[in-house]
Amino acid sequence: MAQVVKKAKETNDFNLEPEKKPAFSTIKRQARTLNRIIEGNLINYHIKTSLYFDRLKIWIDLKEFGEKINFRKGKNFVASVCPQLPPYEQYRKKQEQDKNSCSMDYEEPDDYYENEYDEESVEEKAVDNVYPNCSIKYDIYKETLGINNIYIRNDKLVIDITGKIAAEYGVLGLISINNIKDILQKLQALDLFKFDTKKFLCYAGCYIADVTLDLLFPHSAQVPRMITAMSSFSPLVSDVCFCRKYKKNGLMIKRKAENTGYSELAYWKWDDICNSVKQYNKAIKYTEIIGDAGEAIAKRTLRLECHIYKMADLRKFLDIPNTKKGFVPLLAVLNSTEPVMLKMLKDMGINEYKLHERYNWFELNENFFREDSFTTKEEFQEIIIAEWLANVLKENDYKLDVVKAHIGTEYGFDLNDTYFNGIMPKLKEKYLSYVCYRKPRSVSSILFLMLMVRNEYYDLEYLKIKEQALNTT
């Protein structure tokens, strides 16, 4: 069995290959779409629905609330020395200790997560435990989809689950306020524990949340093209973010700052399933559950995820007040209606206002597009520098901070020079000019993506402009 990849690799999948120069009519149409998006930002639309999650790591203090929720341990919750270890790790260690065991059949999860350390959630060592340390029985874990781990440690009950636990025929499975009670009832049916579900939700907290938005495209071929288009914008944030490959060909963006507590991903759900099926038995069970109808949906699904694993970022992204250190209420997470993926697009370099600035410049230089030749010195400088920058980016791992260092060394800039230190916004501006000028189909795809995301969050129909954008993707 293949092992889980422990470190995401830097990606060289950025697509900077030049396309055919756009007609001025294309520039005008894209500019109109951007204007509509920006105008829409000024309107206070009603949010359609609460959020969906592909992973939640939730917890409750049993010493404080065990009696209030009428908690009772079941027979499939067994004693464990290190309950916080994933069940497959506990099982592997047990087999390694058994000299008579020649079998190493264990099931690893098919998901990789970033470093999840959060100083707010560090558990203090208990002196007198009311409840024994224990974890889910391995056989139950192995046969049940959607469980990363369930355990009690230092009187804290921790439930780490994924959206697969809610999968059914024709449904890929995500967690929300609408199905959380059913999910908790399903866990109790495994004879792990019993408790009052309604009271549990009132007292439970949340450590980790993977906010998820599934975008369903008309045709499966549009999904990988959209990821390729998104990759064209990734160099815009390469100075402040790590831009990495996620699984086979998805994108992962993570801030370079040490205290960052989140990462953002975009990937093709069907490709993710196919890759997992080759490695993990549970993935095969998943495809059997969702059936042909679920697979048909996965083929047309672009999944956007924001993995949030620090409480400060949970509060920031989901607009939850900080009322108690070390605690984010689970119900506040589930009931949040914050449009997280709109923030995520900006983190990925997809910013309608920056794009609009470039299109304003293009519209002011209409003759260049109509006559297919430079008519002013400004046009020449803008386009030549943009294309030069794209080539230099290719030679420097698609990282603008490396390009800046290259320019400083190559052209003898003093590192303390005021102009040189302020050059990064100019580099981003020129690169965006290249994208708009040489990647018009990618820009059309991105505009369509921005409209789709807004239409998922807001009670507003973008049908007409969505159709126009779709015709050019």
Write up this protein.
The chain has 473 residues and is of the alpha+beta class. The protein has a domain at 24-47 and 350-470. Helices cover 44% and strands 15% of the residues. Helix 8 packs antiparallel against helix 9. It is elongated and about 80 Å long.
Overall 3D form: elongated
Amount of helix: 40-55%
End-to-end distance, in Å?
39 Å
Sheet with most strands: strand arrangement = 3-4-5-6-1-8-12-11-10-9
Indicate the structural class.
alpha+beta
- Alpha carbon gyration radius: 25 Å
Q: Give the strand content.
A: 15-25%
By DSSP (H or I, 4+ residues per run), the number of helices equals 20
- What is the typical, i.e. mean, pLDDT? 84
Structure, briefly:
It contains 20 helices and 12 strands. With 473 residues, the chain is α+β, with helices and mostly antiparallel strands.
